[in-house]
Design a protein that fits this description.
7 helices, Universal_stress_UspA, 5-stranded parallel sheet, Rossmann fold, single chain, Rossmann-like_a/b/a_fold
Length: 150
């Protein structure tokens, strides 16, 4: 299978590990000369908070999740790394529950691989709080690379 599109899914908790996520996506995308889709997913509450923090005027501005994602610092950090390595990318934003929204973005982008980060959690923690990475691993339309937080 040829890799043409790799979706790197990030969220609000990934700011402290953009280097680690970039390294993982470069390992699969660069040798294949694949395009990376930098996808920042926000819950409805996170999205509202980001709109306020970035001072979008909801009365005047046409607010596009892709534009909001493109203004997020985690995406800026990843763009700089991909630029440095000459890897093509697009930026996409999504609003909704993290897991299903990542799966939807992967489908709509025609992703051949998804790269997603996560943290080690106890079985009880997964059962009580759910797991974005687990949802993506089980539901994505393509293979998934899981990057565990160090």
């Amino acid at each position: 299978m040829t890799l043409e599109t790799v979706l790197l899914a990030v969220g609000p908790s990934d700011a402290d590990r953009s280097d680690q996520l970039a390294e993982a996506v470069l390992e699969v995308a660069k040798p294949a000369d694949a395009t990376v889709v930098l996808a920042h997913v926000f819950t409805d509450t996170e999205y509202d908070e980001v709109l306020d923090r970035l001072e979008f005027d909801r009365q005047v501005d046409e607010i596009d999740p892709d534009a909001v994602a493109g203004r997020h610092s985690t995406i800026h950090d990843l763009q700089a790394i991909l630029d440095e390595h000459g890897v093509d990318y697009d930026v996409r934003g999504g609003v909704g529950e993290h897991g299903p929204t990542i799966v939807d973005l992967a489908s709509s982008a025609g992703a051949d691989r998804v790269v997603v980060g996560g943290r080690r959690r106890s079985p009880t923690g997964k059962a009580v709080f759910g797991s974005t990475a687990q949802e993506v691993l089980l539901s994505a339309p393509c293979p998934v690379t899981f990057v565990r937080h160090e």
